[in-house]
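TICKET: design request
STATUS: open
ATTACHED STRUCTURE:
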């Protein structure tokens, strides 16, 4: 009996140890279950929205379809600016593979692409070894380069990792014609200057896209829910400009610049006074619209251009791109005498051919300042003597118009300046327009009145002047200048 009791005790002890092990296993399993359930709960309820969006972004591919930018025509249908089809070349480092789905060496890729495109072998090799997901090799690539790339890819049997995407490039058939007026586009086909910038929203159009579901290899999965959102191409614009008249205006402006070597800039505007249609708007200096930032087109050598500070280079380009007819102001000088004469005639203060109406003796006394006489001389060394208004205009006599300005007075002059539109900016549909800068009416003294009467000591834009003069040619009816004929 003693032996049986002893054996029973050992058996009981063994059973208890197994129970403990079983409990540990059960507890561990429950802990694992709780952790898994907790993690699933976090994924589902805490990070559910975030992960859902991430999965969507990985599975859904939006392929952007760029719209065609509208064409700019002259009044007779000649193309001044248009978009042509080109391509953008990019690569996915680490994903460039051949037909056997094997990775193509970085060295082969760098060597091949550097020989075709404007990239250095060393820089491209460095990018290929980086962790960049996409590298743009070159934008706005012409067809001949794309063909070379395709031939090289065929030779190397490359089937993935090099992307050829449709793009558009702005092209200007006449290079420099009306360059300051038309402006140009950046690499993103967004207008950067001139009409390209001012009418960008009309010319650009609306981007389209294709939304597709892709697998882990970014291959499209057939899906009835694939969406296609069509592009809306930009609108075409017809200008009032006549390309033939524009070319003639630029020819004679260039000639005038040569004959006046001290001149740094100039412009010509030709406008129909009855309709406001601008037939030509020429500026000098001009630039090549197809290479707006090319310093060689601006007369600089590479050495001279590199010696200029970056900020100064930018200022030089901005100055060349500027449309002075609209965005520049100047003292109109004797051309302004037309307006003063018109004001005098309209008010009945002067007649066209009254003999001996004005007297030019050279210097003309306009005021007494601190007990000292203040004279302003005529431009001509030999005085004009007695003159009518017609004779004063023909001889552009300063003293005659100072006398006329005194008769009219500053209040009436300014009333007409406002009616002529000189206190407003004109041409905002062309470029950033500036308005005239005049002395405040309350601050006009005898000297300011005299100088204003023959077009000095104030500034207006050339477009303001031609708009005002056109009103004289149009029986006093002021019309706004117009550059866009039709959209």
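STATUS: resolved
RESOLUTION: sequence designed for all positions
ATTACHED SEQUENCE:
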């Amino acid at each position: 009996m003693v032996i049986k009791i002893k054996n029973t005790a050992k058996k009981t002890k063994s059973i208890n140890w197994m129970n403990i092990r079983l409990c540990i296993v059960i507890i561990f399993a429950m802990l694992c279950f709780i952790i898994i359930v907790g993690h699933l709960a976090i994924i589902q309820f805490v990070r559910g929205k975030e992960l859902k969006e991430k999965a969507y972004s990985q599975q859904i591919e939006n392929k952007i379809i760029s719209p065609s930018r509208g064409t700019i025509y002259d009044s007779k249908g000649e193309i001044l600016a248009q978009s042509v089809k080109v391509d953008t070349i990019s690569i996915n480092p680490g994903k460039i593979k051949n037909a056997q789905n094997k990775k193509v060496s970085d060295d082969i890729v760098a060597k091949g692409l550097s020989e075709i495109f404007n990239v250095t072998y060393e820089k491209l090799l460095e990018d290929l070894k980086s962790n960049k997901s996409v590298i743009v090799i070159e934008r706005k690539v012409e067809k001949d380069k794309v063909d070379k790339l395709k031939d090289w890819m065929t030779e190397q049997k490359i089937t993935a990792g090099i992307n050829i995407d449709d793009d558009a490039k702005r092209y200007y058939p006449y290079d420099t014609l009306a360059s300051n007026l038309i402006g140009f586009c950046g690499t993103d086909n967004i207008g950067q200057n001139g009409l390209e910038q001012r009418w960008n929203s009309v010319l650009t159009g609306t981007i389209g896209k294709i939304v597709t579901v892709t697998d882990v290899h970014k291959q499209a999965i057939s899906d009835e829910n694939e969406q296609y959102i069509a592009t809306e191409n930009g609108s075409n614009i017809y200008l009032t400009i006549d390309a033939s008249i524009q070319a003639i205006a630029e020819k004679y402006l260039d000639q005038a610049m040569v004959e006046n070597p001290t001149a740094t800039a100039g412009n010509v505007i030709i406008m129909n006074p009855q309709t406001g249609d601008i037939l030509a708007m020429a500026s000098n200096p001009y630039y090549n619209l197809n290479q707006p930032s090319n310093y060689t087109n601006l007369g600089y050598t590479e050495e001279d251009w590199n010696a200029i500070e970056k900020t100064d280079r930018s200022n030089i380009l901005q100055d060349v791109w500027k449309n002075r007819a609209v965005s520049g102001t100047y003292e109109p000088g004797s051309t302004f005498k037309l307006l003063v004469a018109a004001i005098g005639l309209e008010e009945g203060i002067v007649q066209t051919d009254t003999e001996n109406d004005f007297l030019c003796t050279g210097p003309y006394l306009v005021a007494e300042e601190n007990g000292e006489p203040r004279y302003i001389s005529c431009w001509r060394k030999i005085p004009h003597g007695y003159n009518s208004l017609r004779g004063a205009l023909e001889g552009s006599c300063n003293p005659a118009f100072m006398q006329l300005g005194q008769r009219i007075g500053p209040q009436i002059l300014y009333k007409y300046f406002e009616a002529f539109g000189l206190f407003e900016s004109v041409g905002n549909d062309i470029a950033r327009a500036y308005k005239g800068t005049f002395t405040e009416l309350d601050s006009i003294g005898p000297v300011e009145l005299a100088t204003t009467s023959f077009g000095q000591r104030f500034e207006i834009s050339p477009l303001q002047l031609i708009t005002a003069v056109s009103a004289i040619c149009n029986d006093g009816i002021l019309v706004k200048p117009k550059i866009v004929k039709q959209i």
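CLOSING REMARK: The mean pLDDT is 86. The CA atoms of residues 4 and 320 lie 115 Å apart.
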